[in-house]
Write a structure and sequence with these properties.
A 9-stranded mixed sheet has the order 7-10-11-4-1-12-13-17-18, sandwiched between helices. Strands 21-20-19-22-23-24 form a 6-stranded parallel sheet, with helices on both faces. It has a 3-stranded antiparallel sheet with strand order 14-16-15. Helices cover 48% and strands 16% of the residues. By secondary structure, the chain is α/β, with parallel strands linked by helices. The model has no long low-confidence stretch (mean pLDDT 96). It binds N-acetyl-beta-D-glucopyranosylamine. N-acetyl-beta-D-glucopyranosylamine binds next to helix 6.
Length: 795
């Protein structure tokens, strides 16, 4: 490999400014500086990237492929700078040109190529894979428009298209030479043993590569995203006849496939274009994987020995039938053997038990778009039924193709994302399949990368930790437990509390400048940030706030603990109930914040356009983490881990990874409330459970009455009748039934927070005992239990 000298960062910035962007420092705009710095950092990442690739080839190691429709990577510049330990050098270099480091960093648009937890998890995993030095690729779609931009008009959510590529993007390398044809529709030709699919429509998938660097730049893997291209981009004939729209049509049509990210996280839409996107990603990724495998190893029977493919939820589930199609139809391997090779290569992660999220496709649509695959699915199903004669559930029922069943059958391992979720999988959605294949389901509790979610986003806390225990924690997070003795030192604890206070001041200043929201940084910062969903119960939170407000009004001098309730999160554009909740929170905020009697003690703010960067501001400044889903519904949660790590104790239910967080940080450092998953299932069978809960709790009744009477929507008193009706009626998510205990838990929080030292202790124990929630630990689990892959770093 060619060796080149690494120039000082300052020189590299200047060189890129001049020769890559054609600007001198006097005329460069902020974006030019951001790009020049990014290129200077990227150059160094590329060095690590080449070395890693070379090492992987030389050792013939097994490679991991993570197939995901979403990678919620956010900004990448700070990630690169932090992982290459260039923070001081970058600051100094920019200062020489009188540029502010933070201003340059925040110029970068967020790459919002994901909806929420599933996409952010994929991004944390990529970073951990690189930190660990496990040879891996992420495969996804290069959406032109990521998740929509959210703003509020009169408190209502407004969606606007997001255009992350509207500004220059520094991180990707276009690979015009890496293209694959992806077909749809057409017919299947069977001649004896030979089966061939002749698609009627084809597009090309073109690769764009982003290097992902790990801690200390020891390793870098690739995120390869596919973009849709026309095979014959331009219809010259139409153009010559003056039909310019028709001339450009092929290109426009092909690009549609990678145009937008579907904005639903936990509801399945069943749209044709979505199925096309799923096959587009999977088809292109598999061809690419097999090409690489072929160049290095050749014999396809060795595929499982050298390749592990992880399906991130069922979205890439078509990988099973597609791999069989390639092995059997195209390479002539017998069907059963092809199926065995595919199964030994594939594994599948389930991310939700919500029935409305389990993908299924109408067989008419599926058969029209993928006529060969539906035949293969039937053959997989038939083979599986023959081997398991007691089986009752098929992959094809009610004229639907069931992607969950398909994924399970075609995977050698199926994993859940928290201990509770994994157990519930065995007794609910996959009960029968688990019974037939009792060794297939394993648990890999989620984690988050400590580089982004502590070192980079909370430099004050990171500094305090490193001062005490050294920097070993950064890639060995369980070392945080070495902090425990410090917690007993009153001086140290005061510094720990000082860090939180400084972070809160910083957030308050930013909220004032960016949103005109002015708050006292000494209030308790109570934060709920996540997608808007009934199961996550933002409405439980606002109901409690309203009840609390009413109580403060009645007795203003009772020594209340001042509290700021912060919300952020997007609702799927078609999820009207969730949008009503957003509006209700905004409406309640107007009334409550303007109440002179109470606003010293209670304020509410809903920050617009929640994304990764906003989370990076909020997490370090939170005092309290709201994780209040109906037990049994949140598969894991990962925000819960970020808050605990950054010293915000949880008020939460026994759901998802909350259960394990509580076990790790200690019950005394976690504010528990609510029914367990089992109690939830039982309560649903009780007639009029909501009514009973309301009758038993006058606070709840009075809060509901205020909403119903239009106290927060005087211009339209009926605005929330649907919401209130739902809560008083079916209340499937048991908001009313959990209200009283939630209210009690919040008063416990008030009392605890009124003792600053006691609270700081709780917070510090959360930090010291959250080491297990590193995504490095999670990835090591996948490597050992599922992928049988090894790190190539010598340590
Ligand atoms: C989400 C779950 C979260 C979980 C993430 C990552 C989907 C479909 N599921 O609880 O709701 O933390 O996945 O596993 O987005």
């Amino acid at each position: 490999m060619i060796q080149m000298k690494t120039p000082p960062l300052r020189d590299a910035i200047l060189r890129h400014l001049t020769y890559s962007f054609g600007k001198d420092p006097e005329h460069a705009i902020l974006e030019d500086w951001r790009m020049a710095l990014s290129y200077a950092v990227r150059d160094r990442i590329v060095d690590a990237w080449f070395k890693a690739t070379e090492r992987t080839y030389d050792t013939g190691a097994k490679r991991v492929y993570y197939l995901s429709m979403e990678f919620l990577i956010g900004r990448l510049l700070e990630d690169g700078i932090v992982n290459l330990e260039l923070v001081d050098e970058a600051k100094a270099a920019l200062a020489e040109f009188s540029k502010d480091y933070n201003e340059v960093l925040t110029d970068e648009p967020d790459a919002a190529l994901g909806n929420g937890g599933l996409g952010r998890l994929a991004a944390c995993f990529l970073e951990s894979l690189s930190t660990i030095g496990c040879p891996a690729h992420g495969y996804g779609i290069r959406y032109e428009h990521g998740l929509f931009r959210q703003s509020f008009v009169d408190g209502r959510q407004i969606e606007q298209p997001e255009l992350w590529l509207g500004q220059r993007h520094a991180w990707e390398f276009e690979r015009p030479e890496v293209r694959y044809r992806i077909g749809f529709g057409g017919h299947v030709d069977t001649r004896g043993e030979t089966v061939r699919w002749y698609p009627s429509e084809e597009v090309e998938a073109e690769a764009f590569d982003t290097p992902v660097v790990g801690w200390k730049g020891r390793w870098a893997n690739t995120l390869r995203l596919w973009s849709g291209r026309a095979i014959h981009p331009f219809d010259l004939d139409a153009f010559n006849h003056g039909d310019y729209a028709k001339a450009a049509a092929p290109e426009a049509l092909a690009r549609t496939i990678s145009r937008v990210l579907y904005p639903d996280d936990t509801t399945e839409q069943g749209k044709e274009l979505r199925l096309k996107q799923e096959y587009f990603l999977t088809g292109a990724a598999l061809r690419d994987i097999l090409r690489r495998f072929n160049n290095q190893f050749g014999d396809l029977r060795r595929l499982p020995e050298k390749v592990a493919i992880q399906l991130n939820d069922t979205h890439p589930a078509i990988a099973g039938p597609e791999l069989i199609r390639i092995l059997h139809d195209e390479r002539g391997i017998p069907f059963d053997e092809s199926m065995e090779i595919a199964r030994a290569t594939l594994s599948y992660t389930n991310h939700t038990l919500l029935p409305e999220a389990l993908e299924s496709w109408g067989e008419a649509l599926f058969g029209r778009l993928l006529p060969r695959h539906i035949q293969i699915i039937d053959q997989i199903d038939f083979t599986h039924a023959q081997k398991n004669p007691t089986r009752t559930q098929s992959m094809r029922s009610d004229h639907q193709v069931k992607m969950g069943q398909l994924s399970f059958v075609m995977a050698h391992h199926v994993n859940g994302v928290s201990a509770l979720h994994t157990e519930l999988m065995k007794t609910t959605v996959f009960e029968e399949l688990h019974h037939l294949h009792p060794d297939r389901i394993v648990n890999e509790t989620n984690g988050v990368t400590p580089r982004r979610w502590l070192l980079a986003c909370n430099p004050r806390l990171a500094g305090l930790i490193t001062e005490g225990i050294g920097e070993g924690w950064v890639d060995d997070l369980e070392q945080l437990e070495k902090l425990e003795p410090y917690i007993e030192d009153a001086g140290w604890l005061e510094r720990y509390a000082g860090v939180k206070r400084a972070n809160k001041v910083e957030l308050s200043n930013w909220m004032g400048q960016a949103h005109g929201i002015h708050v006292d940084p000494d209030m308790l910062f109570d934060v709920q940030i996540k997608r808007m969903h009934e199961y996550k119960r933002q409405h439980l939170n606002i109901l409690e706030a309203i009840a609390h407000w009413q109580e403060i009004r009645e007795n203003p001098d009772a020594g209340w603990t001042p509290r700021l309730k912060l919300f952020a999160g997007k609702a799927a554009p078609g999820y009207f109930f969730a949008k009503d909740i957003i509006r209700l929170i905004n409406d309640a905020a107007v009334v409550i914040n303007n109440d002179p009697v109470t606003n010293k003690y209670l304020k509410i703010a809903f920050l617009p356009n929640y994304n990764v960067s906003l989370a990076e501001r909020l997490v370090p400044a939170a005092d309290l983490s709201e994780q209040i889903s109906t037990a049994g519904k949140e598969a894991s949660g990962t925000g819960n881990m970020k808050f605990a790590l950054n010293g915000a104790p949880t008020v939460g239910t026994l759901d998802g990874a909350n259960v394990e967080i509580r076990e790790h940080v200690g019950a005394e450092n976690f504010i528990l409330f609510g029914m367990t998953a089992e109690e939830v299932m039982e309560r649903r069978t009780v007639e009029s459970h909501a009514q009973k809960a309301i009758e038993a709790d006058p606070r709840l009744a009075s809060a509901l009455n205020a909403i119903r009477d239009g106290r927060f929507s005087p211009s339209e008193p009926t605005r929330y009748h649907n919401v209130v009706g739902n809560l008083e009626g079916a209340d499937y998510f048991l908001v009313c039934s959990d209200f009283t205990d939630y209210w009690r838990a919040q008063r416990e929080v008030d009392t605890a927070f009124a003792d600053p030292q006691g609270w700081a202790r709780m917070a510090a124990f959360n930090t010291a005992r959250s080491g297990w929630f590193s995504s490095d630990r999670t990835i090591r689990g996948y490597m050992a239990d599922i992928w049988k892959a090894k790190s190539l770093l010598d340590r």
